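Case study 2.
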Amino acid sequence: MSRLLRYARFFAGRLGIAGACGLALLVFTAGFLLYGVQPLEEEVRTLTARAERLAKPAAAGATAEAEDPAVAIEAMLNDLPRLDEAPAYLARLHERAAEHRLVLEAGEYHVVHDADSRLARYQVRFPLKGGYVQIRRFVAAVMEAVPTMTLDELSIRRTSIGAREVEARVQFALLFAESR
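Prediction:
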């Protein structure tokens, strides 16, 4: 061990202050590249692939002939799930909560019928307690699992600066076609 220490002292003396600073900067740069830049580059690749995947249907639709708006609305309404399928979609919401170790209790559930169209909005509001990242991932998972769901409200409050958990209030709206 002392032999290794003697070599280190010898080379440090030969490098001088400028050389030691340069070597430290080189080590810092390598660490920053490994732990800072490469994970971000991976995230950029993932997001770029996701954006390209999401843009493909839009590009295919842009080349199609212009269709009558009434026909397009009718097609959209036919693609929406029926209101009597709501329990299955709410079960997906609860499954995602269980996956992210969140408890959905004391929720408010309201169905709002649109008088002008055949749409029904199933509004779901509930409080959550958990980590910020945990709640954020839950919201993203729910939005991906239920394509006809919209996020209407998300409010997050931390009780104190040192608190690990946050209190959140989340409101989703599920869009359904009226059951005939």
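The CA atoms of residues 114 and 124 lie 17 Å apart.
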